[in-house]
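From the pipeline queue, job 12 of 40. The input is one protein chain; the requested action is below.

Action: predict structure.
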Amino acid sequence: MEDAYNITTTFILTGYEKNTSNTYVYFACSFVLYVITVFVNVFLIVVMFLDKSLRGPMYICLCHLLFNELCGSTAILPHLMANLISESKTISYNSCFLQVFFIYIYAAVEITVLTVMAYDRYIAICNPLRYGSIMTDVKTHKLVLLAWVYSLLAILVLVVLSLRLPLCKSRIDKLFCDNVTIMNISCADASINNIYGLCLTILSVIIPLLVIVYSYIRILIVCLRASKEARAKAFNTCLSHLLTIFIFMIGVLAMTIGNRAQSKNASPLVINLLSLGFLIIPPLFNPIIYGMKTESIRNGIKNILRKRSTSVLGEKANKIQSI
């Protein structure tokens, strides 16, 4: 199998610890993490859907961001949990490339939607009088749809280019599949993949980050000229988005450090935690940040919970009266 040429049907994921007594501890932690991640993201989406005051460009973008993070965590955690309690620690050829496809779409959509949100904040603060005419709901839907379509097409090309590569090995030294590892175990020249990957990095990461930085430089310039009250209001408006970007960058940095540490014989547990950071940190913390830091969302949560408690109390009162 190890020296086979393009006949690999199953990959062995060697990132999992063998014969460890902590298997069920890791499984329990992963399960709790996944349940919390799904709950906080779905809960916030439901709150924005039910509360009619939570409408507008920012909430449209946030719904897509939360949905994307559900997809990202689902692309890795269920399979990771299954492998933790499995003896084989493997992934099929098709599942591996599907995992690559969804993980990279998650990354591409995350940064593009964050860019749309930065543009929204830029218009709201730097051009407030025209905000309603520039950032309409229709335009926001189009921008977010463009983010999804671009990401799907760009990552589809990336995966198709990797699918054509003949593979010489069946061992993947990670907990999950990624495109870099696929290229590393291929037998053929992957120059086209490397060139496309570089172009994709420039278009999907560097340019969006430059747009975000430019937007916040312009926001900072406007804030420096404004009154103290206006600066405080602008800061509160941007805080959640800034924290989201910060968490995104922490996840990317953790994954990068994990990949570097892998070649330096660092602790497998540390390497695995770092490599998973990009797929775990944003989906878990972003909905919590928006729920805690955004006043309108906090109020929406309170309204939903208040209505729910009132409804429950009303039902109990009716039952008592009927008795």
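Job complete. The chain has a mean pLDDT of 85.
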